Amino acid sequence: MKISLSEVEHVAKLARIRLNEEERTRFLKELNSILDYMDLLSEVDTIDIAPTTHTQHITNALRQDIRRASQPLKDALTNAPETVDNTFVVPMIIK
Amino acid sequence: MLDIARRFRVDNISPLDITEEILQGIKQDPLNAYITVDETGARNAAKEAEEEIRQGSDNLLLGVPVAIKDNICTKGVSTTCASNILSNFVPTYDAHVVEKLKNSGVVIVGKTNMDEFAMGSTTTTSKIGPTKNPWDITKTPGGSSGGSAAAVAADLCAASLGSDTGGSIRQPASFCGITGLKPTYGSVSRFGLVAFASSLDQIGPMARSARDVAILYNAVKGYDPKDSTSVAMKYQPTSLDGLDMRGIRVGVPGAFFGEGLSTDVEKAVKDGISVFKELGAEIVDIDLAYIRYGVAVYYIVATAEASSNLARYDGVRYGLRGNNADDLIDMYIDTRSSGFNIEVKRRIMLGTYGLSAGYYDQYYRKASQVRTLIIQDFAKAFEVCDIIIGPTTPTPAFGLYEMIDDPLSLYLLDIYTIPANLTGLPALSIPCGFTKEGLPIGMQLMAPAFREDILLGAGISFQDHTRFHEKRPQWNMM
Fold first, then answer.
1. Phi, psi of B366, deg, nearest 5
2. Per-residue pLDDT tens digits for B340-365
3. Is B100 a catalytic residue?
4. Is B321 in contact with A81 (Cβ distance < 8 A)?
5. pTM of whole model > 0.95?
């Protein structure tokens, strides 16, 4: 097995997702079968092959350092679940 | 699209009449092609278009009803990505492509159904339930742009925009008997497209003919400084004339005709290639040895990028917030666990694993290296040919829920479409035949970067000599 039940739980924790019993069982099986398939790549010799991250080679797409209008504050806050005094409200961070 | 433009001018039909016709059709739509319909916006745009046509404008896009996939932001109109986590999200700005379309006078009728966050190839993972294939309502329209494809095929719009990360425009175009283009990476701005896998995502046009696709592509392409991967160059309008196929070298990769290819699809695509041969093209056998690793590379790269992109859904700035939480971390977890459905969770899990400590080199780095080899493979192939042709998908449309319990088998069906995303190359799917049961079959054309002129020119020539794209589903008679 590529990935154990405790690793599935660990990955879920990293991804900030809580899995129920059914999802845990299901992902254990499915992730293992998908990761087994990905072993296919181990037969490819990739020594000295540079990894590709983007297909167009644009470096530093910079704009002129000129002040310009940005999204109005009201717009930036309009989809927020909870706001007060032009800020986002979140649950308590430190008890 | 061209036929509607003609009706506006020759038959004096009003854009408002066409818009009402489309809105009426959507109200009775048994396919579930749309998530949101913007009746007011559509009527207002139609009125403006009517006025401009009366004043003699020859802009072909004026008043044409267009649908937008629900992962492309539309100002003031809900954009949900077919996900619970964005069910209440209303963008405060237009995506670059939407702004361009509005400026060119199209009528945006609504937002089309899709797989949640564009992750899937069936349009069954949507929060509003699946879209059905207009050629056979027991079959999937494909995905993830299944709503955009079905809406075009069923006359619920004249053309649409989809997005394509691993085949999400071309596969549904193929399953629904329409034409769809995945443009070169960087030629259409992604500003306002909800990110899934940023190095692979491209927005593209879907319509009934390659000519219509070319018109829409001309309207949306171009440099946009708001997308840092947008390529700054001069974009020439793509011609609406067919390409003279004499002397054009068509590369046919053996790897595209291997195990798992349905016999109906194989025959239709080979017949399609013969049409190009009759038009004077030279057929060349080419070798794409690394294609067989495409699916593995893709599902490592795409899920890794997705796990990173979807980290933004934390219940703070927009979207759903889980409400059973005592502290911040708990709120994140509650939001994400209740907001995402199973396929999105599966991909986030896979991507998080592939990037996690100890596994990065084995998965993400290895996949990115094999991606380089696939890119080199295509570069070599295009030294001996001008265009590469093969099937868009190994099978025609399958049953709506046929593949639901077997994610890996479903992923493997993306084998022919994935390379265009991994390499950034443009690819077009055009109808090239039908199965014995009457389901459409698509043929995929690929070209070097920024050579959409070759793809669309060849597609237009093919459609000037065949009738497959003109055949319509009889769904409204059921």
1. -60, -45
2. 999 999 999 999 999 998 999 999 99
3. no
4. yes
5. yes
